[in-house]
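LAB NOTEBOOK - FOLDING QUEUE
OPERATOR: T.R.
BATCH SIZE: 2
PURPOSE: Compare the predicted structure-token outputs for two unrelated chains run back to back under identical settings.
PRIORITY: normal
REVIEWER: second-year student, initials M.K.

ITEM 1
FIELD SEQUENCE / FIELD STRUCTURE:
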Amino acid sequence: MSVLLSIENLTLSYHQRGAWREVVHNVSFELQAGEMLALVGESGSGKTTTAQAIIGLLAENGRRDSGKIILNGENIADWSAKRLDSLRGVSISLVPQDPGNSLNPVKTIGDQVGEMLQLHQKISKQQRQERVLELLEKVGLSHPEQRIKQYPHQLSGGMKQRVLIAIALALKPQIIIADEPTSALDVTVQKRILDLLDVLRRESGTAVLFVTHDLALAAERADRLVVFRQGEIQEQGIAAQVISAPKHPYTRQLLQDASPGEVALAMPSQAKFSTPAIQLSAINKQFSLGKQQLTVANQVSVTVARGTTHALVGESGSGKTTLARILLGFDQADSGRIVIDGIDASALRGEAQRQLRRKIQFVYQNPFASLDPRQTLFAIIEEPLRNFEKLSTEERRQRVEAVAQRVALPVELLTRKPRELSGGQRQRVAIARALILQPAILVLDEATSALDVTVQAQILQLLQQLQQELGLTYLFITHDLATVRRIAHSVTVLRAGEVVEQGDTVTIFTTPQHAYTRSLIDAIPTFRPLIKESA
């Protein structure tokens, strides 16, 4: 294979608080035609900064201190932004991490995908329209004829990510830099996108630089791995060899956190005899889309035993988040019955409904967006107490510090603001805020999907510990079936607003009855094939 890209002794810095701080130290690796090379490591390890530097898109406060970036034999490290523009999209394309901020909100999807073709290809408007439709269909976007007329705010996060991938694929570039390209996607959509990249690699010799914190995914898909930590490469090599015989302790720790093994959780004894914590019976819900009615819940019934973890799984649009919103009282069901902790919540309104929320609290998906950036951590955690309980300043302080300690958040951090914390610390704050009113039930919406594998393992361990100590019930909404297998006692599989299958986790994973459930399970990334190959 020929070398398309060579990074030689690259060192990068950011200007912060009046001084330059080196964040990537003397990094070297090569990317060959047709291969997928994965840069793996935790947030802040330098992998995204390295990828941005390659395409000349470092943040304004970033700079290259030294090193070469050699593309097709030519050092492009000192090229001007204008000269690099001639490469972007043609030779190298970037699929950015955040679909929410990467699309123009005032342009239609069709215009944004077509723009790349318009800039670089002399084809008719009709040909461009056909190519846009073909690209949207290729990345698995449903109803592409309708999507080209829509704006970004009308699409889900997963749909937006597929649009970004379509833009990156438009000109069939030599190299695609994919920065966490599937982190917002369901496992089946993730598989489809990565299968598509594999086809491009085989057919066109396109190389993929895959930036990810998902080591299982990297291990399954990449030809070679480069393991980053604190701006340095810890080890690199053929994926199967790195996974089966890691040389560096940090790589071994990442592997351990990413593959904790299947845990057959025993159902707590009290769960079998007590009143269920949650009962949703025959829930129906429709939304109006113009003249059409969209059914998001069709006769859905779910029972969650007290003190257990129940997972709601399914692809985007399956209805799982809508069910959670109905349970929490944010949305009203069209029909059906909701019983929370023995209380019929279906008919509650006003103050009675507000007081019921003390029993059931919500932990949001994104720890970076769910905390008020203007408040201190103390104020964030304290706020529910101010809303629900008449306590003295000293009593509130004691309660806040006690719950912070319970979630392993150092008390000295409470004077800080969210921007000063890591993702894992922020999610601990969100959990502390949810626990401060001593609820019986927590609803967790993708509560670990934005976290690195090591931090994710810590948060899941914390949740299990809190459940054992406090007898909490969890409703865990997720598309991450590997996490479900580790933490959930029972599972409901949703598809297009209907229950496809439900039961205890071990049974669902070992003997799934429905083809859709089997497809979800089959799409879970696994280390095992690689380990077998290298044996």
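ITEM 2
FIELD SEQUENCE / FIELD STRUCTURE:
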Amino acid sequence: MKRILSLIAMSIMTLTAMADEAKAPVFITAGQSNADGRVYNTELPDYLDNGYRYLHFANVTSSSTGLFSQRTFEPGGRWAFCDVTNYYLEQALGRDFYAVKCTYGGTAIAPDVTAAKLPVWYADAEWLKEHNAYRGQDITQEAYKNNNSLAKSLTEGFRDLAATTLSQIAQGYDVKAIMWHQGESDRNAADRYYVNFKTLISYLRQAIYDVTGDEADLTLPFIFGTISHSSTQYNATVEKAQLQVAKDVENVYYIDMSDAGLRSDNLHFDAAWTEYLGRRMYNKLIELQLVSGQALDIQKPKTDSNTDIEVQAERSWDFTRPWSDESKSKLEADDSWAALSQWGYRYSGSWQTPTELQTSTGYKFPETEGLFFKANANRATINPGKNIGLYAGGIYLIVPKVKPGQYITIESVTAKSSAERGVTYDTMYEQYLDCIQGGVASYKQQKNVWWYRDTFTEPQDMYFCIIGGGVFITKVMVSDASPIAVNAIRQQGAGGSSSANQHYYDLQGRSYSHLPTASGIYINEGHKFLVANQ
């Protein structure tokens, strides 16, 4: 009899496990900017180019419709670690799954340590009674001052998704885990982080259980990444609190990101480390047996030899900044600039001589003043607040009067295509320019940098053209210092192709026709030379 009962119990357990396995998996991502994503789509991993097949995605940060949609990567947009995790989940699952996101840059858990315009993650029970979900309102206005709870944005957003969509799934659904990154903005409330973090985790778990009724959700796996020690907002007390919570609270796990590489702002993970965290998150899901699949072989990223640095611009143009109402109204009213929906406005005419961007009535756009264009018809677009579009074949962007020794930076986003696209200089300018970074037909190239050789003595207008198809220019800058740290020989030749040369280069990228006598490290043909004067 005991054997029969044991077999029945085992059968029930097996059937229960099979039923759970059949349920549609749901994964939640939450936190501040590094969870939101701060790497531009120009650096999107190649395997994400075609998006997802099985993923159903919902961002409930500022709105809650109860509906899922596709996750897309548009020009000018950004991606986060969860996008990488979702890719590997899709490969492992091979079926429909659901991702819920609630993230907001610069936000803290504590309610009194960030700018008044920012919502917070505070989950104290008494405080929550007086505060509502953040839904995109201007919370500095009196009428919306209490609509500042991100914890409720997430939990109420999840409730709406469950009521409208998830509850309609025939086989049911199963919330697998919460993936989290946050803590930088609590550095001024570090002594409260331990309690606040524990309270938030408990609140999120309870709120999800209240919807699902699944007791396992009371200890729902909670996985977070720590803060890079290189961050200007790193705080040792916050980190200590995070690690203690992982030790004290059941089913809470951390991923060590203490040595993570950052973007030039010294705040946000760079592309390689964002991808690294996404893969580590996936491996943790595999380790916890929340997903059946093969763990990834992961290596820590190596520091890139060319890294962004802050420089003072002599001249700069940032097309991603808001354009004036006057410029936008002039565009809308001018028939020579035809509206192209999400692509902005396309110029129907041509410029046979270098011309500043302007309307047919002669109004020059102040946002592009000082840059010149030469083009055949239908080769340029303006998308106010986003980019200037250039289409291959007979169009030039002209940066006037660049001085010898100066650097030209052009940041760009390419249109989706099977062909490689990018920005380069016209071949007649090969004698003037050294290509430091980019400048080739390389799909998704974000930053292109050239140096006007200091062997010349006169300012020169520099002509840049397009390779392969549509390219969208977001920023242009002329500077006296290099915007990247260079410790390799420059690329030479048209389009940035490499060729042998007899020049020496210092670590700032300056060129010399012979080995300098000044102390320093110099590079020639891949070899480093140390000059040390006593």
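REVIEWER COMMENT (ITEM 2): Residues 2-22 form the longest helix (21 residues).
FOLLOW-UP: none requested
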